[in-house]
Write a structure and sequence with these properties.
Layout: E1 13-16, H1 19-22, E2 26-30, H2 35-44, E3 47-57, E4 60-69, E5 76-82, E6 88-90, H3 99-110, E7 113-115, H4 144-147, H5 150-155, H6 173-177
Pfam family, one: Complex1_30kDa
Organism: hydrocarbon metagenome
Keywords: Oxidoreductase, Ubiquinone
């Protein structure tokens, strides 16, 4: 069940998930300009950040933030898409200090810039201008519709017929494994 306070996040789309199957209550798609507000709402509700990571797709980068609650079930995933030519997103390390190293690692490996980060320099890789190693070439990049589970996209208003035609049907084992 999606808590009523989720509406305060300003989501573009909230996809309810089966907690027993996925370990998550919802996947929430938001605009990058709303990430700070969303994190303040989650902080006020008693959530903590577990992790964040980026995924390099044809449309740019999808940055995923995983949150959990200390006292009750209700893991949430926030997803923010940023274009490759403007891969910037406001830092959330000022709200969730635990995001500090996650953002630095994401910057190291994908080149995503977390604006306002107090210490955004190399964490694991040399700070010598080497291109981020997890940025894919156009030849191997896949579309967001191939990476995100189909139900996330359909529930968020993209008609099923716009999905990749070679994607397994939602009942296929391959589709279930993408969650």
């Amino acid at each position: 069940m999606i808590p009523a306070w989720i509406s305060q996040i300003g989501a573009d789309c909230v996809v309810p998930l089966d907690h027993a199957r996925t370990g998550q209550t919802a996947s929430i798609l938001i605009d990058r300009d709303k990430i700070e507000n969303a994190c303040r709402v989650l902080w006020d509700q008693g959530y903590h950040i577990e992790s964040l990571a980026a995924c390099d797709v044809l449309e740019g980068f999808v940055v995923r933030y995983h949150f959990a609650h200390w006292t009750e079930p209700g893991r949430l995933t926030l997803r923010v898409s940023v274009p490759r030519d403007d891969a910037r997103i406001p830092t959330v390390s000022t709200i969730f200090p635990g995001a500090d190293w996650h953002e630095r690692e994401c910057h190291d490996f994908h080149g995503v810039v977390f604006t306002g980060h107090p210490n955004l320099h190399a964490l694991l890789l040399p700070d010598d201008g080497t291109p981020p190693p997890l940025v894919k070439s156009d030849k191997v990049r896949k579309s967001r519709t191939d990476v995100l589970p189909l139900e996330y996209l359909v529930d968020c208003g993209q008609p099923a017929e716009t999905q990749a035609s070679d994607k397994p049907a939602s009942g296929d084992a391959g589709a279930q494994a993408k969650g």
